[in-house]
Each structure stands twice: as C-alpha cells, then as structure tokens.
What we know:
Blueprint: H1 18-75, E1 86-89, E2 92-95, E3 97-101, E4 104-113, E5 116-125, E6 130-138, H2 142-146, E7 154-160
Antiparallel strand pairs: 1-2, 3-4, 4-5, 5-6, 6-7
Amino acid sequence: MSMNRKGQGTRDKGQEGFTLLLAALVASVVLALGTSIFALAQKELQLSSVGRDSQFAFYTADSAAECALFWDIRYTLFATSSPPASVTCDAQTASVTVQTQQAVTTFTYQYESGGLCAKVSVAKQDTHPRTTIHANGYNTSCADIISSASRALERSVELRY
C-alpha cells in the first residue's frame, strides 16, 4: 500500500463523496417517512374528534326529542287549543313559538343542555291526529351556531306518532 503525502492510503477517485451521499439519502428517506406518519396521525386525530363531536350532537338531539315527547305525552303540553308559553328541558326554560299553517300547528323552541344547542319543533296535524317531533342537536352552543362555527356538527332525530 502506498502512502500519499498526508499519510493516508490511496483512494479511488469515484468514492470520495459516497459516504456523504449515502448519509443524505438515508436522512431524506427517514424524514419523508416521519413526515408521512405525522400527517397520517394528524388526520386520524381529526377524524376521531369529528366522531366524538358527532356523538355529542346526536345525544343532544335525542335528549331534546325525548324531552318534547315527555311533555307531549305526559302533560299534553303541545295542545293546539292552549299553546304553551315555555318548556323546561334539562333545567333550561325555553320560550315556545307557535305557527299555524293550513291544518298544521308547529311549536318551536331552542335551549342549551350542558353548553350544547338543541332546536326542537313539534308539529300537530288537525285533520288526522298525528304528531311529528323533529330535534336538531349540535356539538356547539347556540351562540356559536349563529356565528357560523366552522366545527359545528348537526344531527337530527325525528319521532312520529
């Protein structure tokens, strides 16, 4: 083996930058994999939070429909002859709006339960006794829905009897 003037062995001219090139290649592959895994984990986190918020909205709609059903069946509160001024659901009192079109009287109100908004309409048909309760539940407060919250989800429940 012959020595060059700095005391090192001879090298082939084509392999001088091979180690640096290999290190840069491995670093870029690891960086690309890490970025991909991070993006995937971030999307999964967003999807799971949407699923959770969707359940909150559904449970809010379901409890609002059950509350309206309770007041209608137990106390016949939504009678067309004497419409109610207010309804109490989940310790929240909400004022009721009454609207009559043709042979259908619709009672509407909204309230917040645990910081989540619920909008309810109870429609009574006069021609043949039929009641439809439609409840919309949201994963945000009523004030946030009015200001068009970008993360607001709406789920609905409808009962007919």
